[in-house]
## 1
Amino acid sequence: MYKLLIRPIFFWFDPEEIHHFTFSLIRTLSKIPGFPSMFRALYAVNDKRLEREVFGLKFKNPVGLAAGFDKDAKLYQELSDFGFGFIEIGTLTPKPQEGNPKKRLFRLREDSAIINRMGFNNGGVHAAVERLKKNKNVLIGGNIGKNKVTPNEDAVSDYEICFDALFDHVDYFVVNVSSPNTPNLRELQDKEPLTALLRALQIRNAKKQNPKPILLKIAPDLTDSQLLDIIDIVADTKIAGVIATNTTISRDGLQSANKTETGGLSGKPLTKRSTEVIRFLSEKSNKAFPIIGVGGIHTAEDAIEKLEAGASLVQLYTGFIYEGPQLVSDINKKILQTIS
């Protein structure tokens, strides 16, 4: 129904505008008695065999919603009814910011992809915290970044502000230094500044009564040498794991007219590369840390490939937009088939 009827209508409209409309629609429907139960009946797969314990947390299933979809923690409760095992909110920054000028979100239909150059548009971490206080048992990841106007030499402070504000309201943290849409942000992926940033957060984390898992989200555009550095950094800083991968700046093999737009590319063109990064990290580290696999998951088989490559959990974003919520159910059912 989604791909035959709903998606064609949605795709007639500007992608950013329809995103906000969809949020309003889901929120409205979720207030009508019976609709949340209907969503859960259609898309949630409840089976103990799907449960996963990863970096000390228990996930009811291994399929999550990636950061960027619910940036401001406005819809995580309603989105959980679509069968997700966890929801990652953000990227959040200390101060609210508008992000980059519109138009900044583009569909590449022929490639089943999206290019975005949103630029960490969000209402600020403190506004999100107020909404997270109303959470009813949704496992939440908090994806954190720095404000655009904050120079890289002061970036640690921005991440610490977000970390402190969110600490009591999320289950795990994700340090985002891999978005291509904030000027110079990816320079923080270099070994020295990244190690310093993660150490600072781990020092802060260790002072808490119950420390939270901290993960690092990396770009798919890293070389093998840089990926080996990531393995060393994880070992050195003792963070909980890695999310592989963010969007790519590559444009190889694209067919769509919008392929020349600047920004991060997500969707099917990323499927192979993100799986390669997962496999490389898993094999070269001897499975030393958990990996959340994200990038180009449009079918249940795509998700299984990432799990077999070494991912402990997977996340959806662009695949959720193109394939609809049935994809969540399909993946969980496929996982059950592989273990039955």
## 2
Amino acid sequence: MTAELLIAFIVFAFVTSVTPGPNNMMLLASGANFGLRRTLPHMLGISLGLMLLVLSVGLGLGQLFEQVPLLYNLLRYVGAAYLLYLAWKIAQAGAPDSREGKRGKPFSFLQAAAFQWVNPKAWIMAIGAITTYTPQDDFVINVLCIAALFALVNCPTMSVWTLAGSLLRNWLDKPQVLRGFNIGMALLLVASLYPIMADVKGAL
């Protein structure tokens, strides 16, 4: 991999990781509800899950989607349905010690890692990384490098969203304000699906 291609990929990984999407909306909400420390497993799970997804796409799963495009679109619809379910859960959540609403808890490491497999944006990121930035020469080694770099870039950029959420905790100390914030985060999570689903419709 040339230095120019490496720099271009790092920019791609940074932009796709730091911009709003399902993961970042959920991290912002988790930081506000549970704080930075309790959200760390969620963040690390995202990084590992995305790294494994990139590896899987690079080592053969991407070819399956090229041969059966309907399967890829079906996966994105399933992911979108699950995200709507998560948005509902966020909107209904109360504070961790709240008696109003449902007692909440942050995503675990394994839940966050598994979520990447139904996260439409994560699939777009993984497929884009492999098809655009991975040279064919020494392909397997390049796939390993791309996956590792994605995880390294992804984790610190996500921490920005978690930290932003945790800084809002004092402002969200009233149950009514926290409930309004969670509803807002749920709506933003739903809104983050629009570009992805519009892309699916354009492909049909």
